[in-house]
Amino acid sequence: MDDPAHSLGHERPQDAPAGGFDLVVRSRRVVLPDGERPAAVAVRDGVIAAVLPYDAGVGAAEAVDLGEVCLLPGLVDSHVHVNEPGRTHWEGFATATRAAAAGGVTTIIDMPLNSLPPTVDVPALRVKRAAAAGQCAVDVGFWGGAIPGNAAELRPLHEAGVYGFKCFLSPSGVEEFPPLDADGLRAAMREIAAFGGLMVVHAEDPALLTDPVGPTYPEFLDSRPGEAERRAVERVIAAARESGARAHILHVSSASCLEPLEAARREGVLISAETCPHYLTITADQVRGPEFKCCPPIRDAGNRDELWQGLAAGVLSCVVSDHSPSTADLKVPDFAAAWGGVSSLQIGLPAIWTEARARGHDLRRVVEWMSAGPAALAGLPSKGRIAVGMAADLVAFDDTAEFTVQAAELRHRNPLTPYHGRTLTGVVRATWLRGRPVTDTAPPSGALL
Question: For residue 386, how far is the Cα from the chain centroid?
Fold first, then answer.
């Protein structure tokens, strides 16, 4: 989040004539919905007002020329655990949103746990919004939660502005956010269908989960088989089919889920699914310590290859972080006892780009998965694309620069990540939120959505 005026091709400010623009950002590699080409993106009042030829002569109060550095739309990360209030020592709005901006993410949607109180009714949402106010470097929206006994709270939460409702089908890890059983899932989805909402689901079947028989990663992995995910996904598909509600499967780690998801989509069931950078870039044999632990778990290389195939085919429509940090003391060496959660909010883009380019995918596809897809999921029509009328959320991305991840240098609160020491390709050089640069010295300007 350095000042782009110092690190990029910054032109001297000029007086904008009548009808001129606040900002023009030029790049010979602007990633647009229909492909990559040279262009000048002109911004007025925080909105993209024109997409012009690269060398167009236009008046602007400020102009930046990125040259060969790519210009992307700001990423949308619809799966972030901020944890504030209540567990702010794990992560908070100030640190999470600074990490997001440094990684090219201009919008996050906060999960309803592990904050205290969890966002399961309107008073709790008000507490969450009050905690976030004035702290956010990027825009922040909120998911509500669906837990046993709160079906009457779902419509009021929807009317108060949450983007949908998260539930677990297996224990969440925190007692204040218990899972829904099969009857509870169906009842909640019928209620959500009645007002046109969205259910997002942590899908693992508790009947197929066991306690690890020892402290090692292979023993932990054996305790959470891919069949537990597939069985739970099939349960969600059945509930979506029955209720007519939209449903979305969170953090798919098992490729066994792809077949039922694709079949349900062909049938017309309103179902979608996401995966995460760690499932696409790390394999079980690379797991070294508890900073790699997450639920569902990271699986083998063959499974990873199949997830990439599902992503390329559109069965998986989003790649989001599931940033779920904790303090170091909770990441004990015993995989059975360690807190589960991967910290990757700031480095999801280079992690995915490093792997995607090696597999023959271009930046346009990465933008689809990490910006347009999550924006469409959450219902953010002004986010996710560089086009006239969209929010001027922009990212300068140097797609050939390499760096080695140092956990202590990341902006999120606790210096833990499984990417520590890994060399990645792609560096975020600058981030703009509604046409304003997000820097280390700029006051927080993120909106609560």
Answer: 18
364: CB partners within 8 A, 6+ apart:
31, 35, 36
Q: Does the domain at residues 74-378 carry the CATH identifier 3.20.20.140?
A: yes
CA geometry: angle 269, 272, 277, nearest 5 deg = 165
* Cβ contact 431:122 at 8 Å: no
Distance CA 380, CA 377 (A): 8
Residue among 210, 212, 254 nearest 233 (CA): 254
Give the type of residue at 320. V
Taking only the tens place, the pLDDT of each residue in 200-250 is: 999 999 999 999 999 999 999 999 999 999 999 999 999 999 999 999 999
**Domain regions of the chain by residue span:** 4-72+390-437, 74-378
CA distance 191 to 229: 24
DSSP string, 159-170: HTT---EEEESS
Calpha distance 410→418 (Å, rounded): 12
Length of the chain in residues, anyone? 449
CA torsion angle for 258, 261, 265, 266 (degrees, to 10)?
Answer: 60
| Integer angstrom CA distances of residue 336 from 213, 216, 222, 324 | 8, 8, 11, 17
DSSP string for 24-56: EEEEEEEEETTEEEEEEEEEETTEEEEEE-TT-
Per-residue pLDDT tens for 295-347?
999 999 999 999 999 999 999 999 999 999 999 999 999 999 999 999 999 99
Strand partners, 37: 30
> How far apart, in whole angstroms, are the C-alpha atoms of residue 299 and residue 206?
19
Q: Are 240 and 304 in contact (CB under 8 A)?
A: no
Whether 122 contacts 159, CB under 8 Å: no
Please give the CATH topology (third level) of the domain spanning 4-72+390-437: Urease, subunit C; domain 1 (2.30.40)
